């Protein structure tokens, strides 16, 4: 199952954002991978792998998960990429 | 042009024999070096500490990457990195740190540097050079070679 999301964070996928995403990914029922159009998929629960994507604001990210709970996992994780962690009130 | 590491790291900002009693003093040392090389306004130090207390900058592999906050980027005079080795280790939230890579960068350069650095840390050979090199030139050479890959 695949879900595409555009990175909302104006400052890009920085360490605080990546840490929150990796922490959330570790609690999901299935493993989720993330990739950009030009990079290989990486595990969403690895902070370093997420940083390695070098995703800037507006970058298209492709999330993938399979098996039981895949839809729920993608739904929950996509939300993190679609919200700007530096926005007031976020 | 993409910001790359060797473009923002000078040999004089690599320090291989640092000592710090705790996380706060390690960050002060990082700020000292960034200030010495003229990379940041003195107020950047406070932003680095604020950022650290908001959420640990430990990233794994014995490495922390202290940096300021988005709003402190105007305090950055010139995009720069500083590499400080603490051979005795420093207790950090998240793990024990033997290397700090301090980042001062504006705009999208920050994420570009984070990305390159993360890929280096995911490469066991390069991560080991960063942790164990006793010669600043060895670290600079590894990072320059990385830019060419």
Automatic annotation (TrEMBL), chain A:
Cellular compartment(s): Cytoplasm
Organism of provenance: Winogradskya humida
Top-level taxon in the UniProt lineage: Bacteria
Keyword annotations from UniProtKB, A to Z: Cytoplasm, Phosphotransferase system
Domain HPr: start-end pairs: 1-88
Protein known as: HPr domain-containing protein
Main location class: cytoplasm
Cytoplasm listed as a keyword: yes
Pfam families per UniProt: PTS-HPr (PF00381)
From TrEMBL, chain B:
Gene3D superfamilies reported for this sequence: Mannitol-specific EII, Chain A
One Pfam family it belongs to: PTS_EIIA_2
Coiled coil: none
Annotated ranges, domain PTS EIIA type-2: 7-146
Alphabetical UniProt keywords: Kinase, Phosphoprotein, Phosphotransferase system, Sugar transport, Transferase, Transport
Annotated PANTHER family: MANNITOL PERMEASE IIC COMPONENT, PTS SYSTEM MANNITOL-SPECIFIC EIICBA COMPONENT
Biological function: The phosphoenolpyruvate-dependent sugar phosphotransferase system (sugar PTS), a major carbohydrate active transport system, catalyzes the phosphorylation of incoming sugar substrates concomitantly with their translocation across the cell membrane. The enzyme II CmtAB PTS system is involved in D-mannitol transport.
Full protein name: Mannitol-specific phosphotransferase enzyme IIA component
Organism whose genome encodes this protein: Winogradskya humida
